[in-house]
Structures are given as structure tokens and as C-alpha cells.
Amino acid sequence: MRGFFSLFIQALNGMTFAIKYGLPYKVDFSNATYPYSNAGEEIPTNFWEELMVPQALSPDRSPVYNLRYETYPLRIWHRGFLRSLHQTLRSEIRFQKNLTEKIATLKEKFKPFRVLGLHARRTDHYLEVPSVDEEVFLLKIKKKIQEFDRLFVATDDAVFLEALKRLYPEKVLAHDFYRSNDKQAVHDHRSGKTGLLLGEQALLDCLSLSFCQELILSPSNLSYAALVFQPDLPYSLVESRAAAWSRRKTLLAYLLNRWGIRKW
Q1: At the top level of its lineage, which domain of life is listed (predicted)?
Q2: Distances from the Cα of 122 to the Cαs of 77, 98, 104, in angstroms?
Q3: Is 219 strand, coil or helix?
Q4: Beta carbons of 198 and 4 less than 8 angstroms apart
């Protein structure tokens, strides 16, 4: 039941590995039923190719399948690493035409404004990393909001979004997407939505964050992916001490590996 951008970042890591060693590759999520596979199908479809233009592989290739965690989506919060993933994204990922058109329309809507972007990952995120109170988000917003025309909000929490609309009725921008009213993740209870639609909505929220001029982010995969799309955006992270410590340990391991001190 992994979130969309957990899978997205995993795919990017796999592509980067393949490019490094000159290997052909194919992204295929038809091996199991994911939250973004359409419900009710006996054989899962590859939802990736519904959103992205598929890679062409020679039919005489014998595939070697990745083991479950070989390309796990480790988040390394380092500008250089983000830029390297961005290069993979630019060279390897093409969105399907209907999605490209939606992205272009959204980008035009953002152009007239100076926008502060907020991603508040709530619901079940405390199961992955220790969470912070929503007051911490509100304080960050309050310090920044006067510098911006609009506040774009990407969140899985319908209640938190409504609270922000009451606080900043003239500034809040948010897409009319499916959100959760409880602690259950959006992709865990679809409420009649197709999995593919939820994946598309996650992508559009993430790309909308990348159209902003500055970001307030959660320690989550969607927040991280927004920086993969625009790795030089200024941002701040709203995170607990435990989450910050975990992030710094991962960053230290990455830097030690780069310096040749630790093999990873």
C-alpha cells in the first residue's frame, strides 16, 4: 500500500542505475495490485504506462527483475543528489499527452502570482516518521505569507485544508482533489475513486508545488519529488526532531560514500 511517490522515486532510482551501467530498462508495476492499479481487474495493469510514455525494449531481451528493495526510494536531502535525479527525470520521463495538457493548463494558472507552496502530509504519516503538530505548519506559514500573493496547499488532510481556507480566504489555492477526513491515507480508502485517478492527482499536486517560488514541506516522498522536479527551489522542512535526525543520518551516509570513506 505504498504511496505514489514512493513508487515514483523507486522508478527514478532504477532508471539512474540503468543509465549508469548502460542497461536497457522497463518500469512495470503489473507484478501486483497497487493502490494506483484500477480496482476489479483480475490481472493488474501497469499503471505507470497510463501516465508516462512507455520505454521501448527490444523483444529479444530477457528481463532481469529487481528484487523487492533493490531500488528502494531512499530520500537524500542534498541539492547535488536532487539535481542528479532531476537529470534522470528530464531525460527519461515523458508524460502521456492528456496529462501534459493538464500540466500546461495548471502552470498557466500559477504564472500571474507569486506563490508560497505548502505540502502538509498528515493522516497516517506518523506511522513512517514522528509527526509535528499542525501549529508548527501554521507558524511557518504566518512568517512567510505576507511575501506572497497566494498559498498553494497540497495535503491529504481535508480538515487541515478547510482550516487554512478560513485563515487565509483570499490566498489559498488548492485543487479539487480527493482528500481524507480521518487518519487513513488517501490511497488506503479510495471512496469509489479509481487508483489511476489518485496517481494522477498526486502528480498534479506535486508539479503544482514545483511551480511555486518557495516551499514549506513535510519529510515525505511527495515533498521530496517536488524538489526533484525543481531542485533549486528554496524550501524549509516541517519535521520532528526524530525525523530530522533520521534525515541527517541518511545524508551523512551518502556524503561518506561520496568521499570514499564508506561503501554503500
Answers
A1: Bacteria
A2: 20, 30, 28
A3: coil
A4: yes
Give the integer Cα–Cα distance in Å for 252 and 247.
Answer: 9
C-alpha cell at 93: 520521463
**CA 244 and chain centroid, separation:** 19
* AA identity, residue 107: K
CA distance 261 to 263: 7
Quick check: helix, strand or coil at residue 203? helix
- Which pLDDT does position 37 carry in this prediction? 83
Task: Tell me which residue of 214, 229, 207, 258 sits closest to 83, measured CA to CA.
Answer: 229
pLDDT of 255 higher than 80: yes
15-19 long-range Cβ contacts below 8 angstroms, 24+ apart: 15/88, 15/92, 16/84, 16/85, 16/88, 17/71, 19/88, 19/91, 19/92
Average pLDDT, the chain: 89
In Å, what is the CA distance from 52 to each residue of 2, 103, 141, 168, 228?
19, 13, 34, 36, 17
217 forms beta bridges with 237
Delimit the domains of the chain by residue range.
96-258
Q: How confident is the model over 14-21, as a mean pLDDT? A: 90
Record the cell numbers describing residue 233, joined without a space.
527551489
- Whether residue 75 contacts residue 221, with contact meaning beta carbons closer than 8 Å, is answered with yes
CATH 3.40.50.150 fits 96-258, yes or no: no
* Bridge partners, residue 154, by sequence: 119
CA torsion angle 25 27 31 33 (round to 10): 170
| Overall pTM > 0.85 | yes
